[in-house]
Amino acid sequence: MIDLVANYQLSERWSLAAKWSYESGDMYTPITHLSPNINNPDILEPIYGEYNSERFSAYHRLDLRAEYLRNKSWGHWTFYIDLLNAYNRENINAYDYSPNNVDTLDETPAGFGEDVPVTAEVSMEFFPSLGFEIQF
């Protein structure tokens, strides 16, 4: 994992920050094909390939922050704006077998059989947020 962090003091009260994170893709075990259940042939069960034989795409994202700080005699208050995953990178965390064929991927992930319906779990999309903090 690599994290690059930058902070810039724009003025006495304003600061800007950025954090870029990168990780190589985690390993996963694909489903190579489906087999009818012994007790109920209408139910298809996944048959797994070699353990951890495939790798997700690399994970990376950029988080940005603008912060306004106001010192007081009793402490300070801060107002901030965050833009998490600023360039809206679609980072896949997991592939799931989808026997009901809901929200399946158009393109079969590496290692999965062509007839295996798969969905993807995606990490947080672009997420703006506002915050207010008081310290005494």
Protein described:
It is a single chain. The protein is mainly β and 136 residues long. It has one domain. The strands form four sheets. It has a five-stranded antiparallel sheet, with no helix packed on it. The chain has a two-stranded antiparallel sheet with strand order 3-6.
Descriptive tags:
136 residues, mainly beta, five-stranded antiparallel beta sheet, two-stranded antiparallel ribbon, 11 strands, 57% strand
What can be said about this structure in brief?
Strand 4 (31-36) and strand 5 (44-48) form a beta hairpin. The chain has strands spanning 2-9, 14-23, 27-28, 31-36, 44-48, 54-55, 59-72, 75-84, 92-97, 118-122, 127-135. The chain has 136 residues and is an all-beta fold.
Helix and strand succession? Answer: EEEEEEEEEEE
User: Which consecutive residue ranges, at least 5 long each, have pLDDT under 50?
Assistant: none
Average pLDDT rating? 94
Total individual domains: 1
Write the layout of secondary structure elements.
Layout (H helix, E strand, L loop, with lengths): L1 E8 L4 E10 L3 E2 L2 E6 L7 E5 L5 E2 L3 E14 L2 E10 L7 E6 L20 E5 L4 E9 L1
Antiparallel strand pairs: 1-2, 2-7, 3-6, 4-5, 7-8, 8-11, 9-10
